[in-house]
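Q: Hand in one record:
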Amino acid sequence: MNFVKARIIRVNRGQYTVSLNGREVAAALAGKLRHKGIYPVIGDYVGVQEVADGEAVIHEVMERFSYLCRPDSCGHADGYVKTLLEQPMVANIDYLFIITSLNDDFSVNRIARFAATSIQGGCKPVIILTKADLCPNREEFLAQVRSMNNTWDVFCVSSYTGEGMDEVRRYLRPGITIGLMGSSGVGKSTLVNTLAGREVMKVSAIREKDAKGKHTTTHRELLDINGTYFIDTPGMRGFGLGDTEEGLNETFEDIAELVQCCRFNDCSHTSEPGCAIKAALKDGTLSPERWQLYCDLMQESSRSKSMALKKKIAIQKKRMGL
């Protein structure tokens, strides 16, 4: 059977909406996909069969060129086996706009987590620092981001003054898909509205006392803005890492290279001679804070990988009746 290519543009509580030949169509998941545990996510290209005017059935999920996910935290005990090992977020995005505001929301830790997840998932991170008009010491924030990885594109922008918007618009090309990730209140919706030149997303205010915002976006949705596609995600402050070792090594590329220069392959970077990490810490080319952040995130990634493997084995045993 030949299916028609469509794209998932909205997922809300298990209900799918696809873009099919320029129309929005409600779509149900075929039973064979449910049985195999295959669930499409926002941004997926799928093969559908239209069964009625405005309704379709999803029969296949096409190969993805990028896929972002985070650990599924619905379980509360190690012995509880989850039906999902990860929480899917988006698929088939070219760039991930990591958005943080130049106020109390700013967190190098969170930027590193988002960037590592982006790289691990196969798309390029772009760091966008918003509300530049309200920040007199933006260079300090820029220096913190660039010290983490100086190959990233980093922009200070202001939707109020228009600063930095022309640089960001360079990414807006027909057929390109951009994901948006950041805490509530950092200005994701305002940024998209400014780039679009009209209001396409609802905007809410933040609490001035702690710079936190409300969750304006409550579900993921793909927006077509002059041929460029945007996928907004609900604001995230706490963001756990899955198995992102490759993404972390690229995020902290200089540290990964130092590790390779140690005399011993199994160097613990504590007391061994010829340790490149110890030498870099001693001469100041690597800060203790940055090294600790790398270690902490690597440990979290390794722990998530181990837990996911245990849960996968437990699920397999359960299916086999063991």
Residues 75-84 have pLDDT under 50 and may be disordered. The radius of gyration is 22 Å. The CA atoms of residues 176 and 228 lie 5 Å apart.
